[in-house]
Amino acid sequence: MDYLKVMILSMLPVTELRGSIPIGIALDLNPIGVYIASVVGSTLVSIPLILAFRHVLEFLKHRRILEGLVAKIDRKIDSGMKRLKNVSILGIVLFVGVPLPTTGTWTASAVASILKMRIKNAFLGVLIGNMMSGIIVILLSLHII
């Protein structure tokens, strides 16, 4: 039951994986179980987030106040889409993988939506990034590094 709580914490935008791992370790849970629960929870939430952000962007396209800004962003992304597709998975991996504030699953999902990434690619990038970030946070929480 405690691992489920850790998983739910990793899905929240405030704690995400970076907060759920230290909390799980502070609760004297097995670090490997905490790592797995945190990575799974933080990664699973990315799919509905990407889909939700896409609907938000579509909604904003049809608002007169933001119509010009959204159109400008779309043109910019479409012009550089070929280059962005090549580095987008690696970019998401590095963005999520470095455990800094505001570089978690929620922000990466928004970025993936803006870049119009395929869900499969965005999910893979978030998964690998969460695995990297989880290892770093575990090592920091256990005072290994």
Give an overview of the whole structure.
With 145 residues, the protein is mainly α. It has one domain. It contains eight helices and no strands. Helix 4 crosses helix 8, helix 6 runs antiparallel to helix 7 and helix 6 packs parallel to helix 8. The radius of gyration is 17 Å and the shape is elongated. The model has no long low-confidence stretch (mean pLDDT 87).
Total tally of structural domains = 1
Strand content: under 5%
> How many H/I helices?
8
N→C terminal distance: 29 Å
Please tell me what the overall shape is.
Answer: elongated
Q: Roughly what is the average pLDDT, rounded to an integer?
A: 87
Give me the secondary-structure category: mainly alpha
List the secondary-structure elements in sequence, H or E.
HHHHHHHH
Low-confidence stretches: none
List the helices and strands and how they pair.
Elements: H1 2-11, H2 16-26, H3 31-44, H4 46-61, H5 67-79, H6 81-97, H7 105-114, H8 119-141
Comma- or semicolon-separated keywords:
145 residues, elongated
Brief sketch in words of this structure:
With 145 residues, the protein is mainly α. 79% of the residues lie in helices and 0% in strands.
